[in-house]
Design a protein that fits this description.
Blueprint: H1 2-19, E1 23-24, E2 40-41, E3 53-56, E4 61-63, H2 64-67, E5 72-77, H3 84-101, E6 107-112, H4 120-130, E7 135-138, H5 141-150, E8 155-157, E9 168-170, E10 174-178, E11 182-187, H6 193-206
Parallel strand pairs: 5-6, 6-7
Antiparallel strand pairs: 1-2, 3-4, 3-7, 5-10, 8-9, 10-11
Length: 207
C-alpha cells in the first residue's frame, strides 16, 4: 500500500512539473523588470512569445505587430468553454478597467484555440461581450497552433461523438505583452484583477 501511495505521489509531482516546466525559482540579475516580477521563466522572458499571423473579428489577417500596440493581457481559450475561459476573461477585463482608472491604456486579447467553431464572427461577439477594448483572434489550425507554441501554451481537443459539442483541454495562463518589448510576465488563475493591474502598471512604468 505504501508503494501505491508513493507511486501516486510521484505521478502527481510529475504532472505538476509537466504543467509548469518552464517556470523556475531563480531570477536573472540583469532583469530590468525584477522589481515587478513575481515569477521567472526558464530561458528568460525572451523565450516566450514572438511573431504570429492570425485573423481578427472582421476577418482581416493581422500580425503580432498589428495587435500589440499597447500593453496587452493575452489569453488562449475558446468561446464554448463552459467555465474557466469566461471567468478568466472577465477578470482580465476588470484588470483593464482598473488600469484605465490608474491612467494606463491597456487592452485584453483573446486568442481562440478552437478554430473549428470560433470563426471571426464568433470571436468578435465574444470579445465585444467581455470588454469594449478586447481584441478577439482566431485563424486556421496551423496559425493557432503556431501562436500557441510561441507562447508555450497547451491545448487538446477532447474526443466526442458529436462533432459540434466537445471540450478542449488548455492551459490557463494570462500573458502580459508590452509593445516594443514583447512578453514580460504571466499571471495564474489565482491572481486577482487588482493583483494583475498593480503588477502590469509596474511593468509599464519600468519599460
Amino acid at each position: 500500500m505504501i508503494k501505491v501511495y508513493a507511486a501516486a505521489a510521484a505521478a502527481a509531482v510529475a504532472a505538476l512539473l509537466a504543467g509548469t516546466w518552464w517556470m523556475t525559482l531563480g531570477r536573472s540579475s540583469d532583469d530590468a523588470f525584477s522589481a515587478c516580477r513575481n515569477s521567472a521563466i526558464a530561458g528568460g522572458a525572451g523565450s516566450i512569445g514572438g511573431p504570429f499571423t492570425l485573423v481578427d473579428g472582421t476577418g482581416q489577417t493581422v500580425t503580432d505587430a498589428d495587435v500589440f500596440t499597447k500593453p496587452s493581457l493575452v489569453y488562449f481559450g475558446y468561446t464554448f468553454c463552459p467555465d474557466v475561459c469566461p471567468l478568466d476573461n472577465v477578470r482580465n477585463a476588470e484588470a483593464i478597467d482598473l488600469l484605465d482608472g490608474m491612467g494606463y491604456d491597456a487592452q485584453p486579447v483573446f486568442i481562440s484555440i478552437d478554430p473549428e467553431r470560433d470563426t471571426p464572427e464568433v470571436v468578435e461577439e465574444f470579445a465585444g461581450y467581455m470588454h469594449e477594448k478586447m481584441i478577439g483572434l482566431t485563424g486556421s489550425l496551423d496559425q493557432v497552433t503556431a501562436a500557441s507554441k510561441a507562447y508555450r501554451t497547451y491545448f487538446r481537443k477532447q474526443d466526442s461523438d458529436d462533432p459540434d459539442y466537445y471540450l478542449v483541454d488548455h492551459s490557463t495562463f494570462t500573458y502580459l505583452v508590452l509593445p516594443g518589448t514583447g512578453f514580460v510576465e504571466f499571471f495564474k488563475r489565482g491572481d486577482t484583477a487588482p493583483d494583475i493591474a498593480r503588477r502590469t502598471a509596474c511593468f509599464v512604468e519600468a519599460s
